[in-house]
């Protein structure tokens, strides 16, 4: 795909737009007579047509078959986020993200906090996270489709808190993965089909406050056991392939009519959200890299990591990409170790990854309100260069252009 640089000088851009507008004028863009005022709707229509033509000429026209999947890091509402909400309003921390989220087809975040009734809040411990039901207005405002709960704080209020969290999410029509009433429900993927793309998204953690927080026959979060996950993927593949290639009666609905064709395992795009790693370390461990290799070899396309609270490098393993840590996103910390963070936007076409977009996100909140927004200019470039160096050490090349990092397919 061809991308035009976004850092054209303002004078060059103005000259280009002026030239295009003159061309359209000569080509017969209608003028209104002095005796009649053109309606705002008509004026908007003309402007839209001109802007569409400009985008085509600049090579920016969107491919209608591409699905953009936005993935962000850790989210909680305590500490600095709560202070900013009290001072500036419920949506103040995330208003700077609205336009970015609006441009994605699917939005997925790691919700690292229970959402519980205020009467159940525990104020006696430093690292028990808790959100109010009203805090989910932030998720609704950003249009979040899915949250991962496979992390070390989803069980901060025990099974009752998890149950309440799931209810509040369901009431908002926000889907969830990585936790549930038992191991089977915690493993269950979120599936999405559209634009000839089939997604299966999972969530797990190898960081928990004790074995009792992992799902089993009782509620909990999905544990990360690489061998267990490989076996589960193999079983899924067998089921998908047997249904795809099986007898005709398997492909019929309950009414006897032919159902929509089911995708085989080869036509699935798998994303695994993992809560793992060492807090405030910019490097993945050797054990993480071994786990990533095992899971990537099983057919997972993307691993999205979090828990270190700062970003780490990106590794390509075969046809898979491993984002060891995105860092935070909406998170109230103010400590000296904070860095900026990353949002990843996957560009997927017909279940194939065609490009990855890395969006640098402001995260150094040591001395200011928690107003989360994309980085721009030199600050964005410098931070992306940091990520490029960390990723180059893992064998992955990042191209930096227009306040974004780009990973192109091999």
TrEMBL record:
Checking Pfam families in the record gives: PGA_cap
Q: Which SUPFAM superfamilies match?
A: Metallo-dependent phosphatases (SSF56300)
Gene3D superfamilies the record matches? 3.60.21.10
Boundaries of every Capsule synthesis protein CapA domain copy: 68-333
Q: Which family does it belong to?
A: Belongs to the CapA family.
Name of the featured protein = CapA family protein
Give the species.
Leptospira langatensis
